[in-house]
Amino acid sequence: MIARQKLAKREAQYASEVRRLIDAGRDIMRACGTTSSPRVADIVAAAGLSNDAFYRHFSSKEALVSAIIEDGASRLGSYLAHQMAKESTPEGRVRAWVHGVMSQAADDDIAATTRAVLWNGARISDGLGSNRPSHVATLARLLRDPFAELGSRNPNADAALAAHAAIGMLSDCLGQRVRPTRAQIDHIVEFCFAAMTPRPQSRAATRQQR
After folding, report:
1. What are residue 152's DSSP bridge partners?
2. Rounded to 5 degrees, what angle do the CA atoms 187, 118, 192 make?
3. In terms of Cα–Cα distance, which of 79, 170, 8 is closest to 71?
């Protein structure tokens, strides 16, 4: 009983340390922008922790950057799922997904943070190899079910293509420091619908059309 309590307390402490390091790392990245990469010393100081605490959870700064990207994708995914749940049709859920993704470039504070995190992620992606975070895959999973409902023959592949297109446009807007226009967002939505591979028609349906 005492051993379990101590273990639970230690796990809670470790989880708190990880959270503080991720939050501090993201804040320092935003402050540095796209001109410099944050130092471990700055992150540790902002988190109010020691170097030992940092390296207890992360093998390197690159590993922390990867964790920050994954955490950001998870948060965005939760937000998108919440927005999509408000819609009653698969078309509406796809639109909500696109609008939610592109909103990351519409708010100045969110855009600055997202831009800095993605910039740091690009700098460390080659060094991480197969372990680099895949935030696109995390967000693409939300499109699978509505795409399947809309008749996609391969919802996994179609969702991945649509997600890469949307994230690519988001990255362009962030890089150019511009907000996406309504026309651009609507165009991405229509692209998502057009990119889906339709299910093959049944023979009965084909004969009826003839």
Report:
1. 198
2. 20
3. 79
DSSP lists the bridge partners of residue 198 as 152
201 sits in the region (left: phi over 0; alpha: psi -120 to 50; else beta) called: beta
Give all domains of the chain, ordered by start, each with its CATH number. 1-58 (1.10.10), 61-200 (1.10.357)
Q: Which amino acid is at 159?
A: A
Q: What's the pTM value of the predicted model, to 2 decimals?
A: 0.81
Each as own residue / partner, the long-range contacts of residues 117-123 (CB below 8 Å, 24 or more positions apart, any chain) are 117/26, 117/29, 117/30, 117/65, 117/68, 117/69, 117/72, 118/69, 118/171, 118/174, 119/33, 119/34, 120/29, 120/37, 120/38, 120/65, 120/68, 121/65, 121/66, 121/69, 123/37
Q: Which residue has the higher pLDDT, 47 or 207?
A: 47
For the stretch 125-138, pLDDT in tens is 655 555 555 678 98
Q: Residue 48: helix, strand or coil by DSSP?
A: coil
- Assess contact for 137 and 167: CB atoms under 8 A: no
Q: Which helix (H) or strand (E) holds 55?
A: helix 51-57
